[in-house]
Amino acid sequence: MVGLSEGEKHFIRGGIAQDLRADGRRRLQFRAMSVETGVIPQANGSARVRLGSTEVIASVKAELGKPSILHPDKGKVSIFVDCSPTAAPMFEGRGSEDLSAELSVALQRCLLGGKSGAGAAIDLSSLIVVDGKVCWDLYIDGLVVSSDGNLLDALAAAIKVALSDTGIPRVNVSLSAATDEEPEVDVSDDEFLQFDTSSVPVIVTLTKVGKHYIVDATSEEESQMSSAVSVSVNRHRQICGLTKRGGAGLDASVIFDMISVAKHVSQQFMSVLDSDIAAAEEAE
Amino acid sequence: MEYVNPLTGFRVDGRRPNEMRQLKGEVGVVARADGSAMFEMGNTRVIAAVYGPREVQIKGQQVSSEEALVRCEYRMADFSTGDRRRKPKGDRRSTEISLVIRQTMEASILTHLMPRSQIDIFVQVLQADGGTRAACINAATLALADAGIPMRDIVTSCSAGYLCSTPLLDLNYIEDSAGGPDVTVGILAKMDKVTLLQMDAKLPMDTFETVMELAIEGCKAIAKYIREVLLENTKRLECQRCLRPDFVSGHFLQQTYMYRAIFVEIKAYKAAFGSED
């Protein structure tokens, strides 16, 4: 919970109206970002992203499984988010469940596409080992370690970095003559396949405070929001998913305006993220 | 399986029997907490955050009006173990470890100095490779010190075991799951008192003594390291205070006033000299 006095609330709103926010940023400016890869050695890929005081960790684990009967030509990806009580005392016990579920669903919507797997950011057919028999199950876990607003954007960025860090072991399959037998799978220990992450989108959340909207809101600013629109945009400026939060209604024209701004901002954000990924991989 | 090589006397990860894994401690890793720390023992990595002393949130939990209420929650990340498994929150193991950490830390916190208040300790395991209990207690000590909470002494913890008729210090996951005894000891470093002692499996009386002695030696080594980390942190803080006095105590509004003043100056400059950008 953010405890703010009337004066502070007024100051935050006034600053946003004048295009100069409480920490000296402009309305469409992100906080300084730092990216680290390979933070969880046990995972296939992992990343830590810091946006100001917000810190999230994403890990990708790959396990061999069986594709579902409905989609024998596609692998499975699941996303779970957990908010650690280290981030805020209110996440203690079951207190984080609502927020964790909200973030998980929003990320699933933006990254995994529809139920059929159509429009997913990750090419699900690339996870198939043997059609209808063996596939990779990707488990993407997000952990919020420190929370100072804009968790969704930070988590999406961390997942994008973690996926680009992910190496899936190469597998050799020896198919036996009998078709209904379980195929033998030999997982290689030293050969890894990289993912194509070029189509993984980033999420930009525009938070509306008063008449204006801002990117990368801190938790003080989020406490003053009327509504927020999270737009996920990929490299080709296509919109992959959209979530609106907050109670206040928005005019349709405002939403279109927000989307076009989000598209523009996301391209800058993505180029910053790409250079950060390259720097992090070099440092590793 | 051989956990200690009979020829060289080295363990599975190449350590000597009385050798600890590499320690790493860092203070102030969670920006918004009152105190926080990260502690690594080899591949085991935990984060602890302390909130408080603050007003008691749920009045019914306040046991005594003379002493502060200390609470603790232990949580493991889904990705912390080797094979990923989603566990329900508040399973029995977590509840037990939460309780152990709370009792151990409570013994060292001067609770009578902060009546009618509450101190929350949250520990989050990022990677589990044996000895999470010990690592959590060490991280909690660092975080409490970072939060400036008055303590009697530094509490440190370390585990030891007995495999292949050799006492082993600081067990990793492979050694921990070997089925031998696992002795976890927590001590008040300066007062030389044991505050935590746990053992599973059986062990002859005289061997237990040597194993426990070994664990206590480990605790003392950790206490020495933790003191170094805290001293280093204090030096850094002092240095910061000398460099930028306005930022140390500065409320965020004060900083903003400064930013805004600069902004207004730039505007005035632009107006005067007619620069476009």
From TrEMBL, chain A:
Q: Which GO terms describe its biological process?
A: exonucleolytic trimming to generate mature 3'-end of 5.8S rRNA from tricistronic rRNA transcript (SSU-rRNA, 5.8S rRNA, LSU-rRNA); nuclear mRNA surveillance; nuclear polyadenylation-dependent rRNA catabolic process; rRNA catabolic process; TRAMP-dependent tRNA surveillance pathway; U1 snRNA 3'-end processing; U4 snRNA 3'-end processing; U5 snRNA 3'-end processing
Spell out the SUPFAM superfamilies in the cross-references: Ribonuclease PH domain 2-like, Ribosomal protein S5 domain 2-like
- What is the organism lineage in this UniProt record? Eukaryota, Viridiplantae, Streptophyta, Embryophyta, Tracheophyta
Cellular component aspect of the GO annotation: cytoplasmic exosome (RNase complex); nuclear exosome (RNase complex); nucleolus
Question: What's the name of the protein?
Answer: Ribosomal RNA-processing protein 42
Q: Which CDD domains match?
A: RNase_PH_RRP42 (cd11367)
Q: Does the keyword Nucleotide-binding apply?
A: no
Localization per record:
Cytoplasm; Nucleus, Nucleolus
Checking Pfam families in the record gives: RNase_PH, RNase_PH_C
Q: Which organism is it from?
A: Oryza brachyantha (malo sina)
Keyword check for Cytoplasm: yes
Task: Say where the protein is mainly found.
Answer: cytoplasm
TrEMBL record, chain B:
Kindly indicate where the leader peptide sits in this chain.
none
The UniProt keyword set, sorted, is: Cytoplasm, Exosome
Q: Does the keyword Transcription regulation apply?
A: no
Every copy of the Exoribonuclease phosphorolytic domain together lies at 19-150, 153-218
What are the recorded GO MF terms, alphabetically?
RNA binding
Q: Which Gene3D superfamilies match?
A: GHMP Kinase, N-terminal domain
Q: Which InterPro entries match?
A: ExoRNase_PH_dom1, ExoRNase_PH_dom2, ExoRNase_PH_dom2_sf, PNPase/RNase_PH_dom_sf, Ribosomal_Su5_D2-typ_SF, RNase_PH
One Pfam family it belongs to: RNase_PH_C
The main location class comes to: cytoplasm
Single GO cellular component term: nucleolus
What is an annotated GO biological process for this record, any one?
poly(A)-dependent snoRNA 3'-end processing
User: tRNA-binding: is it a keyword of this entry?
Assistant: no
Q: Report the locations given in the UniProt record.
A: Cytoplasm; Nucleus, Nucleolus
Q: Which SUPFAM superfamilies match?
A: Ribonuclease PH domain 2-like, Ribosomal protein S5 domain 2-like
- What family does this belong to? Belongs to the RNase PH family.
In Swiss-Prot or TrEMBL terms, this protein is called Uncharacterized protein
